[in-house]
Amino acid sequence: MQRGGVIAGACLGVALVACAPPGARAPLVDGTVADAARNAGALDAAIRGRELYVTTCTDCHGAVRPSSVSQARWEKVLPRMVRYAGIDANAEADLRAYIAAALAAPASLPSTK
Q1: How many percent of the chain have pLDDT more than 70?
Q2: Crossing angle of helices 31-39/89-104, nearest 10°?
Q3: Of the candidates 87, 108, 86, which has an alpha carbon nearest to the alpha carbon of residue 36?
Q4: Measured CA angle at 61 (ends 91, 92), to 5 deg
Q5: Of 1-5, 39-43, 70-74, which has the strongest mean pLDDT?
Q6: Orientation angle between helical segments 89-104 and 43-55, nearest 10 degrees
Q7: What is the residue extent of each domain of the chain?
Q8: DSSP 88
Q9: Angle at 86 between CA 53 and CA 22, to 5 degrees
Q10: 3-state helix, strand and coil shares in percent for the chain, rounded to the nearest 5
Q11: Burial of 32 from C-beta contacts in 10 A (0-12 / 13-18 / 19+)
Q12: Averaged pLDDT, 9-20
């Protein structure tokens, strides 16, 4: 009987994540994320990159918190996703700026509302 409860709980968790708005898991470019982007000289690019992340990347899959994926994994999967989505080089640079800033920000991220 306990197994059924675990499965039901997992299903509920998936349903709640699936119902969340696309940007709910993508940290805003403010606070520590903005500081990281600013330090890299890429604040405007990171802001545009987050918008792209929320509006384009979520067309195919749910948004994951960028920091939940390692830099090495991003380097492996991002080129494939960019090609598949038809993202141009300038937009790819913005997307990379956002992901880099989110990865460089300390673990305590600001609100994602």
Answers
A1: 70
A2: 120
A3: 108
A4: 10
A5: 70-74
A6: 100
A7: 22-104
A8: -
A9: 25
A10: 70, 0, 30
A11: middle
A12: 41
